[in-house]
Structures are given as structure tokens and as C-alpha cells.
Amino acid sequence: MTNPSLMVVVQRYGDIAGGGAEPHARSVVQRLRPYFNVEVATTTARDYWTWTNEFTAGLTAVDGVPVHRFPVESGRSRDFRLRERRAFSRMHTLADERAFVEAQGPVAPDLLEHVNKRGREVDHVLFFTYIYYPTVLGLPLAPERAVLVPTAHDEPAIRLAIYRPVFCAPRAIAYNTAEERAMVQRLFHNERVPNEVVGVGVDVPADRSADRFRQRYAIEGPYFLYVGRIVESKQCGQLFDAFARWQDSQGTRATLVLMGHKEMSVPDRSDIRLLGRTPDEDKFDALAGCVALVQPSLLESLSMIALEAWACGRPVICDVRSPVVWGMTYRAGAGLAYRSAAEYAEISEMLIGRPQLASRLGEAGQSFVARTYTWPRVVETYLDLFAEVRARNA
Amino acid sequence: MSDVLIVVQRYGAEVVGGSEGHARVVASRLARSHHVEIATTTAADYWTWAPYYPAGTSELDGLKIHRFPVAEGRDPEFKAFESKVLNGEHALADEEEWLRKQGPHCPALLEFLKDDGARYDAVLFYTYIYEPTARGVPIVPERAALISTAHDEAPLRLAPYRALFQLPRAFGFLTPEERDLVHRTFRNEHIPHETLGLGLDAPGAYDVAAFRSAHQLGGPLVLYLGQVSEGKGCGELLEAWAAYRARPNPRPATLVLAGTVRMELPDRPDVVALGRIPDAQKYAALAAADALVLPSRFESLGIVLLEAWQVGTPVVVRADNPVTAGQVARAAGGVTYRDADSFGDALDRAIASRESLGAAGRAWVERESSWEAFDARLAQLVALTAS
Description:
The complex is a heterodimer.
Chain A: E1 5-9, H1 21-32, E2 37-43, E3 58-62, E4 65-70, H2 80-88, H3 94-104, H4 109-117, E5 124-128, H5 133-138, E6 146-149, H6 164-168, E7 172-175, H7 178-188, E8 195-197, H8 210-217, E9 223-227, H9 236-248, E10 255-259, E11 272-276, H10 280-289, E12 293-295, H11 304-311, E13 316-319, H12 323-332, E14 335-338, H13 341-353, H14 355-372, H15 375-393
Parallel strand pairs in A: 1-2, 1-5, 2-4, 5-6, 6-7, 7-8, 9-10, 10-11, 12-13, 13-14
Antiparallel strand pairs in A: 3-4
Helix pairs in contact in A: 2-3, 8-10, 9-13, 11-14, 13-14
Chain B: E1 3-7, H1 18-30, E2 35-41, E3 56-60, E4 63-68, H2 78-87, H3 92-102, H4 107-116, E5 122-126, H5 131-136, E6 144-147, E7 170-173, H6 176-186, E8 193-195, H7 208-214, E9 221-225, H8 234-245, E10 254-258, E11 271-275, H9 282-288, E12 291-294, H10 303-310, E13 315-318, H11 322-331, E14 334-337, H12 340-352, H13 354-368, H14 371-385
Helix pairs in contact in B: 2-3, 7-9, 8-12, 10-13
């Protein structure tokens, strides 16, 4: 018997920078390959902001999987910020919403033609990311076989009327977290759409060495770790302030280690160490020895780095206002949340002073990840969802 | 008491049309137990969508009506464009454009749904095919009921309708056959649905003898009631009638055609065309007939069958029209035929069993089409929809 067919639609695919939905899509494709005839439909863009045509249009292969790339007719428009402001204003029109989606890019009408034709020949179509043109306009072309991976968080765009069909029309939805599901169901009342919390599997190497990390980067004493883009939108500025205030008020000596691309200014002080982009093995070595991972971002649909910290047995410190990160941390019993700089300092002191508590929280995180975010469970959940789609359309 | 908004492409006393008429009946029945408002366009004509009513808020039968201006009516090139979209090479975008060219393009109605839709507990949309519904349901899917009035026709397969049939909170179908068609086409069996059918007023008093003498009709009568045209299957009916009458030893019988004539008719003594008869004579004509024939192949709900059964008259319908054949099978109030050859036997059987078939039909219609039964189905649809 031949395997059922699966088309994956995502705005970018292949060797591209950054985290988020695109590497998520690629890792899911890798894991589902043994069970489906998988093909990918995407654009020629490599950059998520400009959507400039960088890949060649046409049929190619990535990791041995056929990938159809369609040209971007228009990338992010020059007046995107204006379009965004209009669509998010209270008195906006439906036309403003459509203009926002097109100004955001990537506008790829040939990709839609492909979904319209080929998408209705395959058994299922898996759409990644609710927000971009390929999903907004592609999903309604094959709703009866569509499964959506929304990777949604609470932001102004998700409140636009144009996204309602995206969440109400698909045959099934694969959420990243229970928190994401609760948020989406509150906004769209789409409880009827069959769904599961699927997420991704977390892989961490067995060989992790805190000593190797300390030696390579000359780091001594207790340290806290931040991994990700260093930007204001992920609340890095607040983190620096809270850390500096704690250290400057006779806190136990500690270091804040930053791994990731710097997109804002970082205070010039010896206890904040900016390492820039680092190889994956350094990340896992660093996780192994940290007091805790700090995740200050409020807008995450799934914090991969928090899952990786837990998989390494380390706790997470987060902002209490982040529904997803704090929701997961709370459910897992795998970390602590701060409401203020003062609480941030207290939590940091407590975790340094009580290493056994930190380890216990980390172990709780480890078992949370093992229960939910492992590949065998993720693959099995996808297989169930897809089987339901096929049964409905049989 | 929930707030219900009914969205329909045309609405008003001057509007003639099956789904629009249904919408008006539903509005007045629902208004007895709900707070009902209407959102519609300024059009009265389903082809041009030319502005007829003034835009703005008005009242009809005590219900508030929000009318929005038709920005574009039917495109003059619509027919040519449609044949390209339905039969020729075309781009995906053409299917979206087809919807707009069909009209009525009424953006203000859609903006109203976006801005004010959440004020209503349920929004009932009429007729899947027009833009106000096709573009409106996606704006308020969490509180939408779709009364699709779908036929098995080519546009049903166009791209703009694929998500539409997955979105509503609930469906209201006119017949079980429409339900089956929609389920078969869209595989959306999981969406709650209610088969609404119709409610009917009791026939009231009618005078068969007066009807016969007014039109000088004697002996057994076979009645056709409705527009007399090829499109309604009357050509085939007349051929079948001729074959039936050409059989040896024919019983005396007259085929009475009651309705506006839109085709050539044969000149023969056993076929009488009355033209359109006054509403007051409708039930008398039905009661006078030995059987009612409905030869149409395409019918979304044979209302005339229900009316025949109200006065205990059996019906004869085509076996290959799923809707009318389904009605007859459920009510056990008539006979079906496949072609001109089997028409005569079917008609003879209906007439021979007039008493029992008519009684079964009457019992069925009293049970299913009473206002009580109809109101209960409507209330159920609103309950399934309200969020």
C-alpha cells in the first residue's frame, strides 16, 4: 500500500536563518517522511522581512523531499507600517485588512494556484503559521483537507476579521501549547474544529559539559542564560535593567550570558556577557551549567529554548505576564515568574542559594518535556490528526 | 429572547423569489419569539440588482431593516465571463471576480457585519451563491447559520464557496436532498444542521364546483400548477400526456395547465390552459384534480406538492428529480415515473389510489408543515447557532 500524500505549505523553506515556524516545519517534514509522500510548497524568499526572491523558482529538493518554490510577486511593501497602523486602528475597513495582508507579504499568487490544483489531489495539506498570505488565502482553497499549525500568539493582527476563516474552516488544528489553544478558542469560538496540542520534539545531545562552556568563554561563578534575538520586542531591555539593579544592590555576584543576534544596545558591564551567535553545542553546554534560563519575552507561541532548558534539567525564569511561557512553566512546575525587578532579584538569589531547589524545578521540566514534547509523541499525534482528516473525506 | 439578524440579497413586499420568500416567512415567524432585524441591499431585481429601495434603516411588518447600497450590480458581460469560468481555462482569481460580477456587490453590508455583527446572537444567511452571504459568513462564522438553498449546479464547485460551507455554526436546509447534496460535496456532516422545510397556512374555504363551472371543466382532471414552460418540464409532460392518451381505450381525462404560459401548446381538446389563476382558486383547483403532476427536473422544494396534499390530492413526479421524488417517498402521497412510457401507468395508479395516497399526503403535511412544527425547527436552528 502506498503512503498517504501530504503537502506542506509554508512561507519560507530550506536553509534560512532564525527560529520559529520555518525550522519547525522542516523538522516536522523530516519526522513525517516515513509515513507520507511529503511535498513542500513555498516561496522563493529567504528573508522573512523583505521576502526578496533569493531561491530559484521551480521544483527542487531539500533533505530529499520535493519542494515547489513559487515566485514572490511582492514582498513587504514600503508602506507596510502605515498599512499595519490602518488595519489595527479601531475604525478600519475590510479593505484595510486585505491591504495589510498583502503589504505584509509574501504575495505569491502562483503558490495559490498550486494549492488550488495540487492541494485537492493530496490527502492532506499542512499549513504553517496563520498570519501570512500563503495560509490566509491558501487554506480556504482546500479547507476539507487542511490542518493548520497556527503558531499564534496574542497580537493585534489575530483580531482582524480576515483571520476568522483561517481558524474556523480547517479540518483540524495542531497547536503548540495548551495556552495557545485556550487563547485561540477564546478569540474564535472554534472549539468544534478537531485539535490537539502537538508542538515539536525537543532533541538535546547527551554530551553536554558546563566546564567546556566555562573554559571556552572564560566564565566563572554562577551565571544565568538568555538565548535568542536580542531585541526590545522580546523584553531584553527590561531584563538588562532588572539584572543590573540586582547586581548593583549587593546581589550575589553572577553573570548574565547572552547568546543570539544583537539588534539593540547592550549595557557595557563586565557581568553581562554578549557571546553573539554560537554553535548549537555551545548552547547545550551553556544550558547544562546555568543557574536558570531567563525567558523575558511576552509574545511566544512556543518557547523552544525553554523546552531545551528543561530537557537539560534546568529551570526557567520568566515574566508572569507571558501567557504561554509562564503558563507552561506553571503547569510543569519547572521555574519561577517575576512581576517586578525586585522579584527578579529575589528569584535569582533564591536559585543561587538553593541549588537543590533549582535542580528539582529543572527535573520537573525534564519530565514535562518527556511527557509532551518528544518526537515519538508528536509524530503519533500528527498521524492521528491526519487519519481523522482522511476518515472524514473517505 | 435572542437577537437574530437575517442577511439576504433582497427583501421586501415587492420582491419575488424562492429563498427571499422563505427569508420573509422565517423573519415573521421568528419575530414571535426573538428580536429580529434584517440586513439587505437596495435591490429588488435579482438580475440587474438595480437600486429600488432607499438605503438606510426602515421598517416592514414591525421589523427593522438595514438596507445598504448596491455598489455594483450584475456586470453586463456576466454571462460571457461566467461561461469562461464554468467551462473554460481560467485563473483562480477569475472565480473570485465571477462572484463580484454576479452581484450584488455591497461592501457596506459587509462592513456592517464586521462592525455590528457581534450585537446579534445569531446571523442567518440566505442563499450561498451571492456575495453578501459568500463574503459575509466568513466575517461572523462563530454566530452564522447558512440557509444555503443549494442546487446541484456548476457554481457550487467554485473556489469562493469551499471555505463557506465549512464555516457556519449550523446549516438550515430546505429539504433532506439539499442536505445530502451539501454533505456529499463538502464533507461537512459534522456541522450541526436542521432541515427546515416550510410552514403552511391552512387552505381555508374553497369551492370546487364554482372552480369547475368557472372554467367549464367536467370529468376527471389532471392538474399542472405553475409556470408553463420548457424549463419546468412541460414539453416532456405534453409528450407523455399524448402517449398516455394514445393508448387503447383511454379513460376520459383532461390535462389542466394553470399558470403563465411561456411555450407553444398543442391544440387538442384534452389539454386546457387556464393561464394564471387567482390565488383564491388555487386550493379549489387542487381539490378538483384527480392528481397533480409536477414534471420539473430541478426543484429545490416542491411547495405545490405540499399544497396538493393539504387538500388530499395525490401527486405524480419524476423519479429522477431527487427533491420531489424524495418528498413523495417520505409522504407516501404519490407516484413517480421514469419516462413518457411509464407516465401513463403512474398516473393511472395515482388516480386509482387517490383516496389512500391523498390521505397519507395530508397526514404528512399536517404533521411536518404545521406552523408549530416549522417554528420548532427554526428555534432549534437558532439554538444551534447562537453563541
